[in-house]
Amino acid sequence: MSRLLKIVTVVVAFGIILSILGHNSVLARKTKNKTIPVVVSILPQKYFASRIGGNIMDVVVLVSPGQSPAMYTLTPNEITRILNSEAWFTARVPFEKKFLTTAVKYRSKMNIVPTQERVGLLPMDSTVMTIDGEKYEDSHEYAEGEPDPHFWLDPSKARIMAENILLEYNGIAPKHSEAFEANFRPLAAELDSIDAVLRERFADDAGSMFMIFHPSLGYFARAYGLKQVAIEESGKQASAKRISKIVKFAKEKGVKYILVQKQFPVEQAETIAQEIGGEVIVVDPLSADYFTNLSQIADAVEKALVSE
Q1: Is residue 129 over pLDDT 70?
Q2: Greater pLDDT, 18 or 157
Q3: How many other C-beta atoms are found inside a 10 Å radius of the C-beta of residue 187?
Q4: Confidence of residue 8 (pLDDT cuts 50, 70, 90)
Q5: Could you state, in order of their start, the residue ranges of all structural domains in the chain?
Q6: How far is the first Cα of the chain from the last one, in angstroms, to the nearest whole number?
Q7: CATH architecture for residues 3-115+154-192
Q8: In sequence order, what are the beta bridge partners of 40?
Q9: Distances from the Cα of 244 to the Cαs of 133, 229, 241, 274, 307, in angstroms?
Q10: Which residue from 161, 179, 246, 273 has the least number of CB within 10 angstroms?
Q11: Rounded to whole angstroms, what are the CA distances from 117 to 44, 97, 157?
């Protein structure tokens, strides 16, 4: 089945499911269950939404472990969950765009909550560094102004996401606002703490760079004065000519480690690593265990850093 046909099928299913559910589906579910159903797009959101919501909110995530938000397609069952939820917390990841307009069209009062609100998303071409011969240059390989969605990997921006979730929860269930606030406070303190720890950890590394296949650590790098060098070009696998340039650049800079996002293929990174006598380190920006994962990402970045 073609990708277009899959999308059309899901959109049609959206309308069919809605007609079956009727307008009172959310109210019915809330009445039957003690918890309030909400949907999030990705696992890092689920971590924050679950911690703040405690046993009051029932948080369902759409993109499961190992799946990529760039390639993900909603199933009819997941559409049902969205329509039966009190809110859909989005993160401006690629798959959402296809379905947000359709969701609002079929359910005009649907509560869509952009958790990136007030974060201040950066254009992808401002968070990615690439190479041109021996020079370091701002990347212009991504569409001008296209936002980098990986904001949660900067703890200060993840804190804003958590605040947005808290505000929405207070609106959905105001009688539980004290509980939500009590759950939020230690979470916010942990985010402030790990941010301070990482700032101190990378204080002496300002301007250092690391190489990564897919540029998913732009916000992390910016937060701590680092630079990420992307292997892929225009969101696609690198050409043979580009790989040759990257190998030359990596050898001259002394790169020994290449980071690869868990949801992406590792073959090209492994090829380059073999050429430079280096190793590949897999990182997971979409892990559900936010704090443990952020520490692991910091370890990987620190190991991969080289001076410009």
Answers
A1: no
A2: 157
A3: 20
A4: very low
A5: 3-115+154-192, 124-148+205-304
A6: 47
A7: 3-Layer(aba) Sandwich (3.40)
A8: 61, 89
A9: 10, 15, 5, 13, 21
A10: 179
A11: 16, 16, 10
* Whole-angstrom distance, CA of residue 287 vs CA of residue 305: 22
Copy the structure tokens of residue 107: 């359910």
* Six token digits for residue 216: 């998913």
Type of residue numbered 164? N
Strands (E), the chain: 36-40, 57-61, 88-90, 112-114, 129-132, 135-138, 209-212, 227-230, 257-261, 279-283
91 in Cβ contact with 115 (< 8 Å): yes
Running DSSP on this structure, what letter comes out for residue 283?
A: E
Distance in angstroms (rounded) separating the CA atoms of residues 8 and 95: 14
The two structure tokens encoding residue 232: 């892929």
pLDDT in tens, 255-273: 999 999 887 777 888 889 9
Query: Which segment of 43-57, 131-145, 200-214, 232-246 scores lowest on mean pLDDT?
Result: 131-145
Tell me, what's the pLDDT at 268? 84
Architecture of domain 124-148+205-304: 3-Layer(aba) Sandwich (3.40)
**Reduced to 3 DSSP states, what percent helix, strand and coil does the chain have, rounded to the nearest 5?**
50, 15, 35
Comparing 99-108, 113-122, 164-173, 257-266, which segment has the lowest mean pLDDT?
A: 99-108
Asked if 219 and 151 touch (Cβ cutoff 8 Å), the reply is yes
